[in-house]
Protein backbone atom coordinates (compact mmCIF):
# COMPACT_ATOMS: atom_id res chain seq x y z
CA UNK A 1 0.00 0.00 0.00
CA UNK A 2 2.87 2.35 0.83
CA UNK A 3 4.15 1.99 -2.74
CA UNK A 4 0.99 3.28 -4.44
CA UNK A 5 1.37 6.63 -6.27
CA UNK A 6 -1.09 8.37 -3.97
CA UNK A 7 0.67 7.09 -0.86
CA UNK A 8 4.00 8.31 -2.24
CA UNK A 9 2.49 11.74 -2.86
CA UNK A 10 1.22 11.88 0.72
CA UNK A 11 4.59 10.83 2.14
CA UNK A 12 6.54 13.36 0.09
CA UNK A 13 4.30 16.26 1.03
CA UNK A 14 4.32 15.10 4.65
CA UNK A 15 8.11 15.42 4.54
CA UNK A 16 7.68 19.00 3.31
CA UNK A 17 5.31 19.80 6.17
CA UNK A 18 7.75 18.32 8.69
CA UNK A 19 10.45 20.59 7.28
CA UNK A 20 8.16 23.58 7.81
CA UNK A 21 7.50 22.56 11.40
CA UNK A 22 11.19 22.07 12.15
CA UNK A 23 12.31 25.27 10.46
CA UNK A 24 12.83 28.32 12.67
CA UNK A 25 11.44 30.49 9.89
CA UNK A 26 9.80 29.49 6.63
CA UNK A 27 9.59 31.71 3.57
CA UNK A 28 5.85 31.74 2.88
CA UNK A 29 6.18 32.54 -0.84
CA UNK A 30 8.77 29.80 -1.32
CA UNK A 31 6.64 27.18 0.44
CA UNK A 32 3.51 28.08 -1.52
CA UNK A 33 5.46 27.99 -4.77
CA UNK A 34 6.85 24.58 -3.85
CA UNK A 35 3.36 23.30 -3.09
CA UNK A 36 2.13 24.47 -6.51
CA UNK A 37 5.10 22.94 -8.30
CA UNK A 38 4.63 19.70 -6.40
CA UNK A 39 1.02 19.50 -7.49
CA UNK A 40 1.99 19.72 -11.15
CA UNK A 41 4.64 17.04 -10.64
CA UNK A 42 2.27 14.67 -8.82
CA UNK A 43 -0.73 15.06 -11.13
CA UNK A 44 0.21 13.98 -14.65
CA UNK A 45 -2.65 15.78 -16.38
CA UNK A 46 -1.92 19.12 -14.69
CA UNK A 47 0.26 21.51 -16.71
CA UNK A 48 -0.16 24.58 -14.51
CA UNK A 49 -1.06 25.23 -10.88
CA UNK A 50 -1.65 28.17 -8.61
CA UNK A 51 -2.90 29.24 -5.21
CA UNK A 52 -5.61 31.90 -5.08
CA UNK A 53 -6.35 34.04 -2.03
CA UNK A 54 -9.62 35.99 -2.03
CA UNK A 55 -11.28 38.33 0.45
CA UNK A 56 -14.96 38.94 1.10
CA UNK A 57 -14.78 42.30 -0.67
CA UNK A 58 -14.01 40.55 -3.96
CA UNK A 59 -10.27 41.17 -4.14
CA UNK A 60 -8.11 38.29 -5.39
CA UNK A 61 -4.41 37.63 -5.01
CA UNK A 62 -2.36 34.93 -6.73
CA UNK A 63 -0.15 33.70 -3.90
CA UNK A 64 1.76 31.22 -6.08
CA UNK A 65 1.78 30.19 -9.74
CA UNK A 66 3.79 27.84 -11.92
CA UNK A 67 3.21 29.95 -15.04
CA UNK A 68 1.51 33.15 -16.16
CA UNK A 69 -1.87 31.47 -16.63
CA UNK A 70 -3.04 31.05 -12.99
CA UNK A 71 -2.54 34.78 -12.35
CA UNK A 72 -4.28 35.69 -15.60
CA UNK A 73 -7.27 33.49 -14.79
CA UNK A 74 -7.46 35.03 -11.31
CA UNK A 75 -7.72 38.44 -13.00
CA UNK A 76 -10.64 37.11 -15.05
CA UNK A 77 -12.32 35.93 -11.84
CA UNK A 78 -11.87 39.26 -10.11
CA UNK A 79 -13.13 41.14 -13.14
CA UNK A 80 -16.26 39.01 -13.51
CA UNK A 81 -16.77 38.23 -9.82
CA UNK A 82 -17.20 34.54 -10.66
CA UNK A 83 -15.16 31.44 -11.32
CA UNK A 84 -14.36 27.89 -10.20
CA UNK A 85 -11.65 28.92 -7.73
CA UNK A 86 -14.03 31.27 -5.93
CA UNK A 87 -16.72 28.60 -5.86
CA UNK A 88 -14.27 26.02 -4.51
CA UNK A 89 -13.16 28.37 -1.78
CA UNK A 90 -16.46 29.87 -0.63
CA UNK A 91 -19.13 27.32 -1.52
CA UNK A 92 -17.69 23.89 -2.28
CA UNK A 93 -14.54 21.99 -1.38
CA UNK A 94 -13.92 20.80 -4.95
CA UNK A 95 -14.89 22.38 -8.28
CA UNK A 96 -14.09 20.98 -11.71
CA UNK A 97 -14.46 22.14 -15.31
CA UNK A 98 -14.09 19.43 -17.96
CA UNK A 99 -14.45 21.66 -21.01
CA UNK A 100 -14.19 25.44 -20.72
CA UNK A 101 -15.79 25.84 -24.16
CA UNK A 102 -19.06 24.17 -23.18
CA UNK A 103 -19.17 25.04 -19.45
CA UNK A 104 -22.43 26.83 -18.59
CA UNK A 105 -21.41 28.15 -15.18
CA UNK A 106 -19.47 31.41 -14.91
CA UNK A 107 -20.02 32.52 -18.54
CA UNK A 108 -17.89 35.67 -18.43
CA UNK A 109 -14.96 33.86 -16.82
CA UNK A 110 -15.18 30.95 -19.25
CA UNK A 111 -15.39 33.27 -22.26
CA UNK A 112 -12.28 35.21 -21.22
CA UNK A 113 -10.38 32.01 -20.45
CA UNK A 114 -11.33 30.46 -23.76
CA UNK A 115 -10.50 33.58 -25.78
CA UNK A 116 -7.21 34.52 -24.11
CA UNK A 117 -5.60 31.29 -22.87
CA UNK A 118 -5.10 27.67 -23.98
CA UNK A 119 -6.60 26.39 -20.70
CA UNK A 120 -9.49 23.98 -21.25
CA UNK A 121 -9.76 21.95 -18.01
CA UNK A 122 -9.66 23.16 -14.41
CA UNK A 123 -10.00 21.65 -10.96
CA UNK A 124 -9.93 23.70 -7.77
CA UNK A 125 -9.72 22.64 -4.13
CA UNK A 126 -10.50 24.65 -1.01
CA UNK A 127 -7.48 25.15 1.24
CA UNK A 128 -9.23 27.17 3.93
CA UNK A 129 -12.05 29.66 4.42
CA UNK A 130 -12.72 31.97 7.35
CA UNK A 131 -14.79 35.10 7.88
CA UNK A 132 -12.42 37.39 5.98
CA UNK A 133 -10.45 35.39 3.41
CA UNK A 134 -10.25 32.08 1.64
CA UNK A 135 -7.65 30.07 -0.23
CA UNK A 136 -7.88 27.63 -3.13
CA UNK A 137 -5.36 25.34 -4.84
CA UNK A 138 -6.02 25.20 -8.57
CA UNK A 139 -4.83 22.90 -11.36
CA UNK A 140 -5.07 23.66 -15.07
CA UNK A 141 -4.67 21.65 -18.28
CA UNK A 142 -4.65 22.65 -21.93
CA UNK A 143 -6.81 19.75 -23.10
CA UNK A 144 -10.47 18.99 -22.45
CA UNK A 145 -11.51 16.33 -19.92
CA UNK A 146 -7.95 16.20 -18.57
CA UNK A 147 -8.85 15.46 -14.95
CA UNK A 148 -10.38 12.04 -14.34
CA UNK A 149 -11.36 10.51 -11.01
CA UNK A 150 -7.78 9.45 -10.29
CA UNK A 151 -6.53 13.01 -10.90
CA UNK A 152 -9.20 14.37 -8.55
CA UNK A 153 -8.13 11.88 -5.87
CA UNK A 154 -4.48 12.86 -6.27
CA UNK A 155 -5.43 16.54 -6.23
CA UNK A 156 -7.40 16.04 -3.04
CA UNK A 157 -4.36 14.45 -1.38
CA UNK A 158 -2.14 17.35 -2.42
CA UNK A 159 -4.75 19.93 -1.36
CA UNK A 160 -5.30 18.28 2.04
CA UNK A 161 -1.61 18.38 2.84
CA UNK A 162 -1.26 21.86 1.33
CA UNK A 163 -4.04 23.06 3.64
CA UNK A 164 -2.12 21.72 6.64
CA UNK A 165 1.07 23.44 5.46
CA UNK A 166 -0.86 26.65 4.87
CA UNK A 167 -2.31 26.58 8.38
CA UNK A 168 1.16 26.09 9.82
CA UNK A 169 2.46 29.06 7.85
CA UNK A 170 -0.45 31.28 8.87
CA UNK A 171 -0.04 30.32 12.52
CA UNK A 172 3.68 31.08 12.35
CA UNK A 173 3.05 34.45 10.73
CA UNK A 174 0.41 35.36 13.30
CA UNK A 175 2.77 34.40 16.12
CA UNK A 176 5.60 36.48 14.70
CA UNK A 177 3.26 39.39 14.11
CA UNK A 178 2.05 39.20 17.72
CA UNK A 179 5.64 39.22 18.96
CA UNK A 180 6.50 42.21 16.77
CA UNK A 181 3.43 44.09 18.01
CA UNK A 182 4.30 43.36 21.63
CA UNK A 183 7.88 44.54 21.12
CA UNK A 184 6.74 47.73 19.39
CA UNK A 185 4.29 48.60 22.17
CA UNK A 186 6.99 47.84 24.73
CA UNK A 187 9.37 50.25 23.01
CA UNK A 188 6.73 52.99 22.95
CA UNK A 189 5.95 52.45 26.65
CA UNK A 190 9.63 52.67 27.49
CA UNK A 191 10.03 55.92 25.59
CA UNK A 192 6.98 57.44 27.34
CA UNK A 193 8.25 56.31 30.73
CA UNK A 194 11.64 57.90 30.15
CA UNK A 195 10.29 61.11 28.64
CA UNK A 196 7.53 61.79 31.16
CA UNK A 197 8.89 59.96 34.24
CA UNK A 198 5.88 57.67 34.58
CA UNK A 199 5.56 53.95 35.28
CA UNK A 200 4.64 51.16 32.85
CA UNK A 201 0.94 51.14 33.77
CA UNK A 202 0.64 54.90 33.26
CA UNK A 203 2.54 54.68 29.96
CA UNK A 204 0.13 52.05 28.69
CA UNK A 205 -2.84 54.20 29.74
CA UNK A 206 -1.37 57.06 27.69
CA UNK A 207 -1.14 54.76 24.67
CA UNK A 208 -4.74 53.60 25.17
CA UNK A 209 -6.07 57.15 25.43
CA UNK A 210 -4.16 58.27 22.35
CA UNK A 211 -5.59 55.28 20.49
CA UNK A 212 -9.16 55.97 21.64
CA UNK A 213 -9.03 59.72 21.08
CA UNK A 214 -7.69 59.38 17.54
CA UNK A 215 -9.61 56.19 16.68
CA UNK A 216 -6.27 54.65 15.70
CA UNK A 217 -5.12 51.08 16.48
CA UNK A 218 -2.85 50.90 19.51
CA UNK A 219 0.01 49.37 17.51
CA UNK A 220 -0.13 52.27 15.02
CA UNK A 221 0.13 54.77 17.87
CA UNK A 222 3.12 52.84 19.20
CA UNK A 223 4.72 52.90 15.76
CA UNK A 224 4.28 56.67 15.51
CA UNK A 225 5.88 57.20 18.91
CA UNK A 226 8.83 54.90 18.23
CA UNK A 227 9.55 56.49 14.85
CA UNK A 228 8.69 60.11 15.66
CA UNK A 229 11.56 62.60 15.93
CA UNK A 230 9.99 63.94 19.13
CA UNK A 231 7.53 62.11 21.37
CA UNK A 232 5.76 65.37 22.12
CA UNK A 233 4.80 65.66 18.46
CA UNK A 234 2.63 62.58 18.88
CA UNK A 235 1.46 63.04 22.46
CA UNK A 236 0.57 66.72 22.12
CA UNK A 237 -1.61 65.96 19.10
Structure, described:
By secondary structure, the chain is an alpha+beta fold. The protein has 2 domains: 5-174, 2-Layer Sandwich (Beta-Lactamase), CATH 3.30.450.40; 176-235, Arc Repressor Mutant, subunit A (Orthogonal Bundle). The chain is 59% helix and 15% strand. The protein has 9 helices and 5 strands. The protein has helices at 5-22, 28-42, 68-80, 84-90, 107-116, 149-196, 200-214, 218-227, 231-235, and strands spanning 48-55, 60-65, 94-97, 121-129, 133-141. Strands 2-1-5-4-3 form a 5-stranded antiparallel sheet, sandwiched between helices. Helix 2 (28-42) packs antiparallel against helix 6 (149-196). The longest helix is centred in the last third of the chain and has 48 residues, at 149-196. It is elongated, with a radius of gyration of 23 Å. The model has no long low-confidence stretch (mean pLDDT 82).
Q: Features of this protein?
A:
237 residues, alpha+beta, Beta-Lactamase, Arc Repressor Mutant, subunit A, 2 domains, 5-stranded antiparallel β-sheet, 9 helices, 15% strand, elongated, transcription, transcription regulation, kinase
Quote the beta fraction: 15-25%
* Unreliable sequence segments: none
CATH architecture of the largest domain: 2-Layer Sandwich
Number of helices: 9
Output the structural class. Answer: alpha+beta
Share in helix: 55-70%
Choose one word for the global shape. elongated
**Cα Rg:** 23 Å
Strand order of the largest sheet: 2-1-5-4-3
State mean pLDDT (0 to 100 scale).
82
Major sheet: 5 strands, antiparallel
Q: Any idea of the CATH class of the largest domain?
A: Alpha Beta
Kindly identify the CATH topology of the largest domain: Beta-Lactamase
- Count of distinct structural domains: 2
Number of strands: 5
Q: Between the first and last Cα atoms, what is the distance in angstroms?
A: 69 Å
Instruction: Give the CATH H-level superfamily of the largest domain.
Output: GAF domain
Amino acid sequence: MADTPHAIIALQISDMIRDIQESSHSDVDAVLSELSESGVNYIDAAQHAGITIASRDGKLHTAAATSEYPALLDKFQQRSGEGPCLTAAWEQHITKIDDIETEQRWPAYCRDTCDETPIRSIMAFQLYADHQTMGALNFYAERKYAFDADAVEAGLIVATHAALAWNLLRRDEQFRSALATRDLIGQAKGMLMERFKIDAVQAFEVLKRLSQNSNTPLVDIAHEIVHAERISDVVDD
